[in-house]
Write a structure and sequence with these properties.
Elements: E1 6-8, E2 11-13, E3 17-19, H1 28-36, E4 42-43, E5 60-62, E6 67-69, H2 78-88, E7 95-99, H3 104-114, E8 121-125, H4 141-154, E9 158-163, H5 169-181, E10 186-189, E11 193-196, E12 199-200, E13 205-206, E14 215-218, H6 223-236, E15 242-246, H7 252-261, E16 265-268, H8 270-275, H9 279-294
Parallel strand pairs: 3-16, 4-7, 7-8, 8-9, 9-10, 10-15, 15-16
Antiparallel strand pairs: 1-2, 5-6, 6-14, 11-14, 12-13
Helix pairs in contact: 1-2, 3-4, 4-5, 5-6, 7-9
This protein binds ligand RRO.
Length: 310
């Protein structure tokens, strides 16, 4: 019997593979579809204080290799998600809130709304690439530490932060240390890579309409970036930050690689967009095949066991 369980501190995932915030997570119907599937948890769409329509369509483009999105944070507002979360506990799977603000104070209002609701963890989105009024807070390190430390004071729930990719090891070192000091439990690595685009050759136009067609890049093409961020965050936080790996998962072997690199759990975005929630059944089967081939009985034993030559 293969054991797929992993633990994010006090939270156990029976199968540590689920959706990313923003994909199949905008309303109760989508979240129920995730929870009824083989996914091990559900992550809600990033919720803002007020509901938002988001950007004009076409705002997402996806294929086997990549996705580009400029959704612009369409969501039903924090009060809606706080209402529906009660019913979703029925599925007895971990429920993760994702909160997003446009100014520092928004995060403090949001945490007051979600902290006593039955979310098992709170992911703070400091890395949305597509909103003109809000920058990527996580590129302002001191402000990010201040926000996370202040949120930490307001809740005992598992608290983490979703980060963008960094181009510099020094930035990752500072970020990892600062987030440990701020009391973060986990980091979700990585949000879509800012400033991607795709061209539709037939019409000779940008695939997306908003923001000059430029948005966040995801999918298989970003997997090598995600993996390096996981390895470096694990290294610089000395394993103190648990990691949810997001960006480029398409197969069971990808999941196994993310676990080796140091992820405790993984999120699926672009491939879920392409395939729908039945993807989790395929991924579970493929992951089990990899484990059998490698004679690994417990997935948790392989977290961070990647051989790295210095
Ligand atoms: O809604 C979006 O445009 C969006 C968000 Br909030 C995010 O965090 N990441 C992304 O790729 N798109």
């Amino acid at each position: 019997m293969l054991d797929l369980r992993t633990n994010l501190k006090t939270l156990e995932f029976k199968f540590p593979v689920f959706n990313v915030a923003g994909v199949w997570s905008a309303n109760d119907h989508e979240l129920e579809n995730i929870l009824m599937s083989d996914a091990g948890a559900a992550v809600f769409k990033s919720m803002s204080l007020e509901p938002r329509e988001g950007n004009a369509k076409n705002r997402v483009f996806a294929n086997e290799m990549l996705s580009v999105n400029s959704m612009g944070l369409p969501n039903k507002g924090v009060d809606y998600y706080c209402r529906i979360v009660e019913d979703l506990t029925y599925y007895k799977k971990p429920l993760v809130a994702s909160i997003v603000g446009f100014a520092e104070r928004d995060f403090y209002h949001l945490i007051e709304k979600v902290k006593d609701k039955p979310f098992d963890a709170i992911e703070v989105n400091l890395s949305c690439p597509n909103v003109s009024e809000g920058c990527i807070f996580a590129y302002q390190q001191k402000l990010s530490f201040k926000i996370m430390a202040n949120l930490r004071k307001r809740t005992k729930k598992l608290l983490g932060v979703k980060l963008p990719p960094y181009n510099d090891r020094g930035d990752i070192e500072k970020m990892a240390r600062g987030l440990v000091s701020a009391g973060c439990d986990f980091v979700t690595l990585i949000n879509s890579v800012p400033l991607g685009c795709a061209i539709d050759l037939k019409t000779e136009s940008m695939a997306l309409r908003p923001n000059m067609g430029i948005g966040g890049l995801g999918g298989a093409v970003i997997k090598p970036i995600t993996l390096s961020q996981i390895v470096l965050f694990r290294h610089f936080s000395k394993g103190k930050l648990k990691i949810i790996g997001v960006g480029g998962i398409k197969t069971g072997s990808d999941i196994y690689e993310f676990i080796l690199a140091g992820a405790t759990a993984v999120g699926v975005g672009t491939a879920l967009w392409n395939e729908g929630p039945s993807i989790f059944t395929r991924l579970k089967k493929e992951l089990k095949t990899v484990m059998r081939r490698k004679k690994v009985a417990r997935l948790a034993d392989k977290i961070g066991k990647l051989k790295i030559y210095s």
